[in-house]
User: Fold these one by one.
Assistant:
Number 1:
Amino acid sequence: MAPAAIRYKQLGYVALNVSDLEASRRFYRDVVGLTPVETDLPDTAMFRCSGAHHDLMLTQGGAPGLKRVGWWMESDAALAAVRDQLRGLGLPILPVPAGEAAALGVREAFRSVVPSLGATFEFFVDMADAEGPYAPTHTKIERLGHLVMNSPDRAASERFMLEELNFRASDRIEGAVTFMRCFPNPLHHSLGLGGSPDGKGHLHHVNFMVTEIDDIGKAIYRVKAHEVPIVFGPGRHPPSESVFLYFLDPDRLTLEYSYGMEEFPEVGDREPRLLPMKLESIDYWGGAPSPGMGSTGAVEQFELETAE
């Protein structure tokens, strides 16, 4: 059972590897609508969609996909609790050097790996505020919402997140995906876990939450004007009640805009539901995803030899 002291503020940031940093920089600024953040990190671009230092990081090189996931812990005590938990499990711990932590806008951080998923997780406290208030551009993005990953052993990855890292299951689609929240953050899910068809960890998509349903409608015509493939939607997800639109970035990584999401109380939350494995469980409106959805998204492997 995960220690109760492991408590999260929110999904902190997502770092992606891209094949053409300049093309991706333009896409995330002009099409997605994120605000660029100045950084001294080499071969790196940062963006924000909130008042935090950054929400998304792009790095040139490697197979396009997930570099790492940053989880913003609630307190120093929560950071210490998750560090002790992972160390007690015999998992590698890699402290983030002070200079790199400063460049990331965080006070203290370390990295480790999720068994059976192969993804690097960074846990940190006290991300700095951005310089100046956040001003949305063409899309009123409210926050980085969640990511969904595919695991070669979904059951083992789910058990690890729930039993060792104090995530909570919100809903499941039978045999397909588990939606979970980083407790006590109230959003229906910060992480989704599906199965991997090729025996490797895989990024499925990254989500950005918008503040108006009109942002979903406007995005349809904007991404079409930029000849960006739409791979699912618009539609409405039964598990979270979110209205959604999925489209591809220049590396064919899948991104999602969503509007609205169920929120859970810290105490007295409902039990997770088990929805049947059918299309009606992913879209009230009867849509179906295109084959390109979630098909690109390698997971960068953690350098175990550099860790404690």
Number 2:
Amino acid sequence: MHSFLKYTYSSSLLLLISFNLYAEVSPNKQREDSINNQIIEYLFDADIIKLSSSLEDNYNLVMNKNDSSQYSVLLLHGRGLYPTEPNVMEPLRTAFIDQEISTFSLQLPVLEKGKSYYDYKNIFKYSDERITSAINFIQSHELIIIAHSCGAHMLFSWINNNNIQNISGLILIGAGAVDVDQVMLDKLDYNIINIPILNIYGENDHGSVKNHSMLFGKEIKRKDDISSKNIEIRNSGHNYLDQGDSLVNIVNSWLKSL
């Protein structure tokens, strides 16, 4: 009798977790509008394009297009942030502008503050559509995608559901970040991805990020993939505070090696 009750309780708990994980959730448009208004106030070096998808309208793509650019870069920011956040996106964005490389930084969907990776998992269908609409707008046959933290999760989700034939390379920064007692649900099958990947992580990054870096390192070694790299930034945490120059130098060096 006790075993039956324990089994019933465990089954119900698993069903409840599953229901909550995949419950219908929408992005927080009020918070996103607040973010957008703040960006418009101080952004003078780029055009702000309004994109739409089959799921929603009017989200921002911060664009610096150069007709002579040898390739294009799409930037995907971290959880609850914005296309010009100062630690990761903005150092990279401004560096590419200075190099006259076409650069596009996408506003990804956000939730209210305090939400976890599992909460954000519920809105990945929105980020899938946003990434698709951005790529369709960019229309580049040489596209590099750079994704930080939850942006990497959203990128993984998009890759698992779409054709990546026009993507020339991926740069992952702080990939694999999940909250305590949570596990990464969207993973990349590196066996079927045949484009170069740069994985960057901080010396003092989250344990889940460092675990991802170890798995990634084993995969590229097993495949004898000399184009892909796994690089640690010393004295850096997950948000790469004051590490903008290091990020730019590592990314530029890797891109030049391709």
Number 3:
Amino acid sequence: MFWTGELIAKTAPVRRRAVPAYAPHVDRGMAAYLGLAIGDALGATVEFLTPNEIRHQIGLHCDITGGGWLRLKAGKVTDDTTMSLALGESIIAKGRVDALAAAEAFDAWMRAKPVDIGNTVRRNLIAFRQTGNPEAPASEHDAGNGAAMRVLPVALACYGQPEKTTIFANRAQAHVTHHNALSDAACETLIFMVQDFLAGRDPVDVERQRAGKLVSDFPVFAYDKRLRENPSGFVVDTMQAVLQSFFATETFEDCLIDVVNRGGDADTTGAIAGMLAGARYGMDSIPKRWSNALDASIRAQCPAQALELLAPQVS
């Protein structure tokens, strides 16, 4: 009997777990979330470095190695990913994008002592604690990229809904920390670009309709005049770098390598570019060396949350 069992063990075919087949928009939504986290982890290593400093210290930065000014372990992410996950959890729990639920989720996230937090986010969350009002006052000085970096849960939850509904939903969460017209314009452009790519739209049409409208409405966002290197946390700098890189490359990998090697606020440009590239190219486009290097918990949470947020559209 032992011999027979041993023979069967050696000769029986291995049963592999079947990989679920997802609808194209679901695959792209999962890839967008994984891409956000990968771009965040990749860019964090070179955040605040200039392109010349990156070249001299690393060469071409193309692997998830950790380090950087935050001294992260390889595969760890920053506030770009963790705030997105916090927002997504609040949307799932509430059943919609809700300003108070988002503010409470962000406040709980801040109380948990995240590895990094932007000054505008901190200031307006402290104000929320004091007043209970989830909407920060409008300010021309709050045009940072802290709301734009976390829009993916809104894009997924509002997929298939009217644009006016989506705009309202975005501003409910964005104005908790960033109540600014430039921030709103960037957030909504990114949301609609993600949704367009989930629907399989052609990148040329997306650039013309979405990025073109952004530049038409707010000419300060024009991104084709000069290469945007060393982008700051100003949402205009961020969008210029991301849009230049995204539309000038043809693969997920090329896009992320290009944008993070521009330095500056590289975790955020990497996260936003990764979100767009994932939505455009899908799961199969993501290099295994990057997904395998990502923190295991984050690697599991991001696509799982994407599935939940897209659940009303999943059949």
